Give the backbone structure.
Amino acid sequence: MRLAVLSDIHGNSAALEAVLDDIGRHGIAQVVNLGDCFSGPLDGEGTARLLADTPMLTVSGNHDRLLVDRPASAMGLWESWVIEDLSDATLDWVRSLPLTATLGELFLCHGTPGSDDENWLDHRGPDQRLVSRDLDATEERLNGVSASVILCGHTHTPRSIRLPGGQRIVNPGSVGCPAYLDTRMEPHFVHQTGAPDARYAILESVAGDWMVTLRSVPYDAEPMIAMAEAKGASSWAQALRHGWLA
Ligand SMILES: [Fe+2]
């Protein structure tokens, strides 16, 4: 069995297209999606059309929930950029998404098994950058999930780890948002992967175990950069161009 794992597309239809092409080149038929599909200043409904054409088991991310749990007037910046662009059918699909899902040996969640808005493998360190969690804090967040492979997103940081008991936890990174600036609290939080590429993961069952490949896919981000600039989202434009924020 082989499958591709996507997360945190954030409305970047160009990155999603490049990733789906790469998945096709590998002859992989099964895809799962860990949420945060649309929010941001990019191509929300174009992303929705691509997702509708490629059926995949999808769980809801915190930014998907934020599109449907409050009126538009109460939405944050990332949702306010895209909410008017999304069709009723797309929003109905978002409402239908589960918080977690199980697929054979795999458990899917966006943040952790207990929360769609909690960083798992990495968290905000004292210098306001992401640092790896220690083993105890990582195991605590299993919340009783015993699946042999657990898939999570949310941090936009590709990681593949194993716990001493053998469980794997895989974060494929973000398809569409390689760096971001969080200005909701002081001091501001900067997250950057250091490359503009689209990220995803391939899982392959081999001899009773799983082989994990973290993919880094280059693509033409110019149309997305133009969309970000048109909405005045200069940090998004910089993130998409470089994967670094000044
Ligand atoms: Fe995200």
Summary: Residues 13-25 form the longest helix (13 residues). Residues 8, 10, 36, 61, 63, 154, 156 surround fe (ii) ion (CB under 6 Å). The CA atoms of residues 182 and 189 lie 5 Å apart. The helical segments are 13-25, 44-53, 62-68, 77-80, 88-95, 135-140, 222-230, 234-242.
